[in-house]
What does this fold into?
Amino acid sequence: MIRRLTVVAATALVAAFLAAGAASAEPAGHPQQLTPKEKAGLRVTEDVLGSLFGGASSGLGF
It folds into this structure.
């Protein structure tokens, strides 16, 4: 039971760090063109987070 709770807490912590990093990586209100490498990274991140949280791909179009 404690092991499952630890896994859930660790997953939530990692998700929070990823969200905080993404939020601070690009300032709001300053749109920029993404490079192909950045687009590929976003696709991979979307796939990984979708598989971790059981959600379908949102198809953001990156």
Remarks:
- The chain has a mean pLDDT of 76.
